């Protein structure tokens, strides 16, 4: 057994090194390298709910079900001054394709599917009209990763959902999207998603109205050959998954007839 004692010191040293390595890496990772603020808003920036009494008297405008579909990164170079950091964020690329062309193909098909059910659809670029309201807002994005084996979709709502229905929308979308695409669900919802600029009505003029039920969808990875095959080759599949979810949600809220 004596020979087992000898490696104890090197092992202790190794553990210490690894521990400090992890702490150091985390510290470094958390620091914005450029000094610019991170892309996503932090949860702490959102206002307390008590400050929002003025919303109590809000009433939905009359009219048919209305859905805003944002083509992620479209015309990002036209972002307003308050969101100028978006101007150099053109989105992910992979396999010779850009995220924005994938997002646009799916969003246009999604618009067609929803409109055929009587929904009023606004296709929106990076710049959201000030105080934009709709029954549902869906921001359509495609993810990227340096590791081409990473695949799957994820859907998130805002840190501050004042509609009370965004989680339900997300749950319905997750289920309909997975059913249509058969993609795995990626659990790595990021701050960039929950703090998405278009959700941050407390900070920006060009953001959704707080009574807009909203979700952001990362449809899959443009850098993964399997995801890309569906997203690029058959955009009607992810579009169908999203349309089914939005329609189901609208019906659950009595905003659309069966
Ligand atoms: Zn994106």
TrEMBL record:
Pfam families: Amidase_3. It comes from the Bacteria. Residues 126-247 form the MurNAc-LAA domain. GO terms for cellular component: outer membrane-bounded periplasmic space. One of its GO terms (biological process) is peptidoglycan catabolic process. The keyword Protein biosynthesis does not apply. The keyword Cell division does not apply. Coiled coil: none annotated. Keywords: Hydrolase, Membrane, Transmembrane, Transmembrane helix. CDD domains: MurNAc-LAA. The chain crosses the membrane at residues 7-29. GO terms for molecular function: N-acetylmuramoyl-L-alanine amidase activity. This is MurNAc-LAA domain-containing protein. The lineage of its organism: Bacteria, Candidatus Chisholmiibacteriota.
